[in-house]
Amino acid sequence: MRIQRENPARPREIVGSVPVTTPDSVDDVVREAHRDFREWSRRPLGTRLAALGAAADRMDAKRSDLAALLARESGKPVADCRGEIGFAATYLRWVRDNAATVLMATTIDDDLGRIECAPAPYGVVAAITPWNAPIILSVLKLGPALAAGNTVVLKPSPLAPLAISAVAELLPGVRVMHGGAETVRALVAHPLIGKVAFTGGGDAGRSIAATAGQALTPVVLELGGNDPAVFLDDFALTPDDYERLVLASFATAGQVCMAAKRLYVPQARFDEFIESYLAAARRILTVGDPLDEKVTMGPVVSRAAAARMTALAADAWNRGGWMLPLAESPDSDGYFVAPTLVLDLPDDADLVRLEQFGPAVPVLTYDTEDEALARANNSELGLGASVWSVDEDRAFTFATRLEAGFTFINTHNRTGMSLRAPFGGTKRSGFGREYAVEGLREYVQTTVRHAPAAFRAGGPGMPARAYPGPTR
Ligand code: NAD
């Protein structure tokens, strides 16, 4: 059995297909990955890190071909695909250069005894990833996991399985399997899986966490967001800033976990904001075939995603929303959805309340900062957020009151990421972190060897029922 993948810009074109791993063949793959683990984990750290650097070089060498394939299967503009692959290679080099400090054992050896703490791999990691940034979101798991000596079984999304499968071949210690919820369940429940790393939506996340809970396997979950962008009353944006803001919402046709999904603008500055936003959108948004270098927004990923956006737009219209289209979408049978700002919506409209994950963005007005804060925080999700102000200290102070794992200041979405800054959600947006030192630590557990001095040869000993005394 194979999964075929169509091109969302031209659904009649089949880009490629991948073999399905049925639930009853999952065991074979995990056992092979576990055999690989015995060998891989014994290699010296330097050898493992060098392999990641070499994989990054191979990714760079294949970047153009991989980007074209990714654009055709996902609908993302080809320039963005090149950017994602380049960023993933950069991240692998960051792991190569920074993992040793995190993965080093530490030893205390003094007159109280000898304690050795060493980070140990979990074994086989199951990585389950979404379609919207399949390369970087997989590499964020593969890099740290492999560095630490784990091997990985990677289960990509059926909506973009092709480019990531080619990337996985460039890395040692990775086996790829394809399939749906049943395959994932068999993988996550497998007793030889040491850790599960999932990025995707809340429904799948809940189901995976429940299966992992039954198996007592630790999980890291990177789930959806409904990021507010709050413009304080002193915000000052240049035309370039507005263009960056437009792409913060509409890159990948709005299908990004950390897209700016709700815009909160002071009532007194609303007209000026909308005028400048529309002008910037006209300059920066070109909707069309992802392989066209001029295109900045492609189709949404599937017929179902387009239907979901139609339903959200119908609800917005029924709730009194005023639709402002930002660019024309091509007349084609592709899954194109015109990028749209939606004004005048009540806070309980679906487009405000739920993660839209598509190219329709509500603009909401407010009168006081406390009101903006309360409304921005009124979500069960807490992934990202942004604050915009000429006064950086004021923005940071406001940001501390936002319920979000990652708050951008004067930007939002990928232009605000840093390899040094841990990313992940609060509330129902997940747990665990990617990037930075925290992202490396997710794939190791600390193991300890302790020889108390009391019991060294010739040591003073200790009564059998005693507790240890104070330490320095
Ligand atoms: P999805 O949850 O539908 O799929 C993600 C992965 O889970 C895929 O591999 C899919 O095959 C698998 N899957 C789907 N349903 C499953 C189930 N019931 N049981 C087990 N596995 C299942 O998500 P998607 O549409 O690919 O991605 C969109 C979602 O991912 C959005 O909510 C987005 O915000 C979120 N996301 C989060 C981050 C982050 O870093 N927090 C990054 C990207 C995307």
UniProtKB/TrEMBL annotation:
EC numbers: 1.2.1.3
InterPro entries noted in UniProt: Ald_DH/histidinol_DH, Ald_DH_C, Ald_DH_CS_CYS, Ald_DH_CS_GLU, Ald_DH_N, Aldehyde_DH_dom
Residues of the active site: E222
Pfam families associated with the record: Aldedh
Key word Oxidoreductase present: yes
The entry's keywords: Oxidoreductase
Keyword Oxidoreductase: yes
Enzyme class (EC, first level): oxidoreductase
Protein name: aldehyde dehydrogenase (NAD(+))
Originating species: Nocardia goodfellowii
